[in-house]
Amino acid sequence: MNGWNFIGILAWIIVIALLFLVVFNIRNRHLKILVEHKTKITWKTVCLDALEILVVIVAVIGMLYVSLFSRVDLNNKQDIAVSYKFEPMIMQTTKDGQGYYIKIDKNSSNGSNNVYQYWLDNSKYSVSSREASISDGTLPFNVSGVHLNWPMKKISKMDQKYQYAYVVTAEAKYKSNFINGLGMRAGHYASEYRVLRVPARSFINYAK
Prior knowledge:
Layout: H1 6-36, H2 43-69, E1 80-88, E2 92-93, E3 99-100, E4 102-110, E5 113-120, E6 123-128, E7 132-136, H3 152-162, E8 166-174, H4 178-182, E9 189-198, E10 204-207
Parallel strand pairs: 4-10, 7-9
Antiparallel strand pairs: 1-8, 2-3, 4-5, 5-6, 8-9
Helix pairs in contact: 1-2
């Protein structure tokens, strides 16, 4: 485990300890009023109880937010590190001898999402269209809906090296810092997205 994540563990221990402390404090305060002083609980006591409970609720919501519900900003260079991997695809052939790099398997698709199949080093890989897109080499490199700073100079070099037939994998990883440690995600992968680059649309096999 990344050492920064112990910040989040310690923070949760403090929040849980605070919860038990508040419950214990409220119980003792009420017992002291009812048993020792034999008086009624006043609005002042109720307001103090509510304030302590509110502090605990805010602490729990804050920790849940940073741990589970905070959105990932892939362009936030302070918290996210993005790396790019380039791998050449291996051409496959249909029964009639037509070459292709990507097979779109609609039988395996889920709803409006397709499943893209491609080959690297003679191994088959499958990825959902939610986590990947196809880029036609006859058009300028463009990935809609994914806000990443794509390394265009590197991509231009790979276009020439692999003849527009390769996979670009963008891997976003949480950096080791206080905020990510508080959310117990330092060193973990935030997301992964793949761009399947083909020379032209004719190199795609649309399976029925």
